[in-house]
Amino acid sequence: MPHTYVLLFSFIIIAAILSWIVPAGEFERVMVGEREIINPDSFAYVTSNPQGIFEVLKSIPRGFARTQDISYFLFVTGGSFLIINKTGMIESALSRIVSSLKGKEALVIPVVVLIMGLAGSTIGLSEETIVFIALGVSLARAIGYDSLIGVGMIGLGAGVGFTSGFMNPFSVGVAQSIAELPLFSGIELRLVLFVVLWIVTSLYLILYGKRVKADLSNSIVYDEEMAARSHSDYQDLNSADNIEFTTKQKIIAAVFVGGFVIIAYGVMSLGWFITEIGAVFLGMGLISGLIYGMRPGDLADNFIEGAKDMMYAALIVGLAQSLVIIMEDAMILDTLINGLTGAISNLPSVLSAAGMYVVQIIINFFISSGSGQAAVTMPIMIPLADALDVTRQTAVLSYQLGNGFLDSIMPMSGILMAQLAIADIPYKKWVKFAMPLMGIWLAIGLVFIIFAQLVGYGPF
């Protein structure tokens, strides 16, 4: 497995080569309210725009420019988190949690996965998971697991929620509005899906964590864990005696918890996104450092150190977006979508529903945004579903599951690559860890798609 940067750049090169082979084409875009959607009957071939070496090179800074909000978010949260971490509050708080969970550590996994899942299903928690990765890894290590469990609880937990999406306005909500379905209709089946995915994912993490806890050498990231444990700042909270939780640290903990309460309220009630979340996190870091007694110069030094740790992740986010830019500029994205949908147009209804699921999975490699994929594909899939006697609700479910599952393993996902970079997990080791679970998820999704079509999942 090559270096992550090499892997992503290779995908960019492949997309550029395809631009010389795949005919350019496009659908007409029309505005419905404030949303741009595709006219499914408007596909036409256009003059090709193959991408050369200079276009490939330009796509990289353009990718950085398009994702600058996420990159700055990483720098701000990374710097702020290190300031908070330097106060020792997290270490002391975790030591108390570990002490209270002796013999019951496995309960942490399903609880955290449930919390992240509920957030993913209701407020579309996705990019925001980056904030929690360092905390999740610290908690996992503190109770005897490894960094994979930490990222799994946070990232896979949010993935369970975002994919099942029983009330996700950014994926299901957009898709249902395009399909002219009542908002969040069919929630009962999606709730069942959420519970099934939560149970399966929690058990998967618990079983892996049990092996790691019994013997750290069973960890897929054993080398990385040994390196982390040899770091001068690392402290084994399992073996530590009663670490003092000072008054200052308790106040900082209150600031920390209060900050996340404010973030939760802002996201759910005020429509906040990563700019506002980053601002709150910056305030949490500065206030925590001042309470602890850091001098302004120390605050600046710690912030810079934490921001530097995010450089690897920030660059990966930009590279992932460069791939999309190449395909957009080459005008081959619509051609690929048109070809994929045409391939399933003559199948029986049950197989057509399954085919829609497969097509959405493939398209997700090129369009990782939930609402973006809905806007591009649903105007095509809904008339196709009507023609193939597939219910519109089943078509939405096919999109929803095809869009969500592989986000947790695709190297084109900037969010995933940022999570792994923060946790210092090589991509190839994450694939080894997560691939079996992805297979289970995909199989569960196929079962639900077939069931939905057989029972006439509706209202229509």
TrEMBL record:
Q: How does it sit in the membrane?
A: Multi-pass membrane protein
Instruction: Please report a single Pfam family linked to this protein.
Output: DcuC
Membrane-spanning residues? 6-25, 70-87, 107-135, 147-167, 187-207, 251-274, 280-297, 309-327, 347-367, 437-457
Main location, first listed in the record:
membrane
Under InterPro entries, the record lists: C4_dicarb_anaerob_car-like, DASS-Related_Transporters
Q: What is this protein called?
A: Putative basic amino acid antiporter YfcC
A GO CC annotation given for this chain: plasma membrane
Coiled-coil blocks = none
- Which keywords does the record carry? Cell membrane, Membrane, Transmembrane, Transmembrane helix
> According to its UniProt record, where is this protein located?
Cell membrane
